[in-house]
Design goal:
CATH architecture: 3-Layer(aba) Sandwich
Number of strands: 5
CATH topology: Rossmann fold
Distance between the termini: 48 Å
Radius of gyration: 22 Å
């Protein structure tokens, strides 16, 4: 009996080995082409930035907070909301160094991109914000845009990517750090899309 079961299993794998390999190959090709397309959609230049009710910075990488503080100083908006769990001592020092009125700056406690969007929605509601500028890194922008557009309906949002020395998609493939960051974000983007499709909002908050 044991020998017969073993033979049946072996025969099943023998019969389906080619299909399994072809399926894995097709998946790999689609997955790889999807990543290339993802990188091609990344934006490295700012949209036209007009006046807004608030500036929102998503913490997590160098250059984001500094860009938000500079826009506040330039008068793009009267309020700045820093969403994330960045060190509050550092944030207060950055605000003081920029010589900005602390009353113009509010801080959040988000631990994920979905929480960024949710707490920004609460901030917008409390402060009657109808337009905002959202600042994050270029590789993070597709997922941030998808979640912000989902949770902040009715708010006019201008997205500003921080790209440092990365000027176009070709630079991403030539820079190992940028490529690694984009690859990680691509996977999070796919998972977020799948969880959104299946209505698993609670799980999205961990990404």
């Amino acid at each position: 009996m044991t020998i017969e079961i073993g033979l049946k299993r072996e025969n099943w794998f023998d019969r389906n080995a080619k299909k399994i390999l072809l399926s894995l190959l097709a998946f790999s090709i689609i997955y790889s082409l999807g990543f290339v397309a993802f990188v091609q959609t990344l934006r490295f230049k700012n949209e036209d930035i007009g006046k807004a009710d608030a500036i929102v910075v998503l913490t997590g990488a160098p250059g984001r907070i500094e860009a938000g503080l500079q826009m506040l100083k330039d008068g793009v908006a009267p309020k700045l909301f820093i969403s994330g769990i960045e060190n509050k001592i550092y944030l207060n020092q950055a605000v003081e160094k920029a010589r900005i009125n602390p009353k113009q700056v509010a801080f959040g406690t988000a631990k994920s991109t979905a929480e960024n969007a949710l707490e920004t929605a609460e901030f917008a509601k409390r402060n009657n914000v109808r337009s905002m500028v959202v600042i994050t890194s270029f590789y993070h922008m597709p997922r941030a845009r998808a979640l912000f557009n989902r949770y902040l309906k009715g708010v006019d949002i201008t997205y500003v990517p921080i790209s440092h020395q990365i000027r176009d998609s070709r630079n991403v493939f030539r820079n190992s750090i940028a490529l690694s960051l984009a690859f990680k974000e691509y996977n999070k983007f796919l998972i977020t899309g799948a969880l959104t499709y299946f209505g698993a909002d609670t799980a999205i908050k961990f990404l």
